[in-house]
Automatic annotation (TrEMBL):
A GO MF label: integrin binding
GO biological process, one term: cell adhesion
Family: Belongs to the CCN family.
Protein's name according to its UniProt entry: WISP2 protein
SUPFAM superfamilies: FnI-like domain, Growth factor receptor domain, TSP-1 type 1 repeat
Limits of the VWFC domain: 86-152
Xref: InterPro entries: CCN, Growth_fac_rcpt_cys_sf, IGFBP-like, Insulin_GF-bd_Cys-rich_CS, TSP1_CCN, TSP1_rpt, TSP1_rpt_sf, VWF_dom
Species in which this protein is naturally found: Chloroceryle aenea (American pygmy kingfisher)
Pfam families named in the record: IGFBP, TSP1_CCN, VWC
GO cellular component: extracellular matrix; extracellular space
Presence of keyword Cell inner membrane: no
Subcellular location: Secreted
Gene3D superfamilies: Complement Module, domain 1, Thrombospondin type-1 (TSP1) repeat
Residues in IGFBP N-terminal domain copies: 6-82
């Protein structure tokens, strides 16, 4: 929770009259311009996990306050949710714990315990050359989010829908797959992989999804 400072401390930190730069700072994406703790100059609001103090205030529009609970441990105050609820920040936007969101049409993500995991909404199947489709190629289709496989003849460009040229399997496909691997990085955005045959061709393929075990520690604020 936020910690109020005594009036005499505020008087020492806040100079009157205000002396502010002529040009307000350019803030990173997701960080609005707000008045500093003295109500004097416009500054960039601190985001989730970033260091904060009396002057450098957190983004209250996202429900963030300056959390001093870690100060005795020597790590300094950081911006956190007022109710100490875990959250995650993606592309400058803060999501609450458990919230499901879609940063793009190709990904579906869920915020969990300060990190987030994503699953691809587009199939990542691999198509091998076949007699009826010797030159498969994955292309972006206007108006569609996910790329699709098309068949391209050697001498002429003949595009056909991938579903129309894939024959039905003559046998039932017994599903098989490994568990998702651990995240490839200890902090920040990484990848988790698994091997599975759960696709239209019942072929083993490596599937990937984005993951984040926890946010990386915020860099110290520039003095």
């Amino acid at each position: 929770s936020a910690m109020a400072l005594p009036p005499q401390v505020c008087a020492q930190l806040c100079q009157r009259p205000c002396y502010c730069p002529w040009v307000p700072p350019r803030c990173p994406r997701g960080s609005p311009l707000v008045l500093d703790g003295c109500g004097c100059c416009k500054i960039c609001a601190r985001r989730l996990g970033e260091p904060c103090d009396f002057l450098h205030v957190c983004d209250q529009s996202q429900g963030l306050v300056c959390d001093y609970s870690a100060v005795p441990a020597g790590t300094g105050a950081t911006c956190n949710f007022e109710d100490s609820e875990e959250g995650c920040e993606v592309n400058g936007r803060v999501y609450r714990d458990g919230e499901v969101f879609q940063p793009s049409c190709k990904l579906l993500c869920r915020c969990l315990d300060g990190g987030f995991t994503c699953v691809p909404l587009c199939q990542e199947d691999v198509r091998l050359p076949t007699p009826d489709c010797p030159y498969p190629r994955r292309v972006e289709i206007p108006g569609k989010c996910c790329p699709e496989w098309v068949c391209e003849a050697q001498d002429q460009h003949l595009h056909r829908d991938a579903g129309a040229v894939s024959p039905l399997l003559p046998y039932p496909c017994q599903e098989w797959g490994t568990e998702w691997s651990a995240c490839s990085v200890s902090c920040g955005i990484g990848f988790s992989t698994r091997i599975s045959n759960q696709n239209r061709y019942c072929r083993l393929e490596t599937q990937r999804r984005l993951c984040m075990a926890r946010p990386c520690p915020a860099l110290p604020a520039a003095s």
